[in-house]
Amino acid sequence: MTHSFDQDYWDQHWRPDPTGAPSAMAVSPPHPYLVRELDDLEPGTALDAGCGAGAEALWLAARGWQVTGADLAHDALVRAAERAAASGVADRVRWVQADLTTWEPDVSYDLVTTSYAHPAMPQLEFYDQVASWVAAGGTLLIVGHLHHGPGHGAGEPPAAASVRADDIVARLDPDRWVVATAEEPSRTLAAHGVSEVALHDVVVRATRRH
Ligand SMILES: C[S@@+](CC[C@H](N)C(=O)[O-])C[C@H]1O[C@@H](n2cnc3c(N)ncnc32)[C@H](O)[C@@H]1O
Question: Which of 41, 53, 74, 103 fits a disulfide with 98 by CB distance 3.0 to 4.6 angstroms?
Answer without folding.
Answer: 103
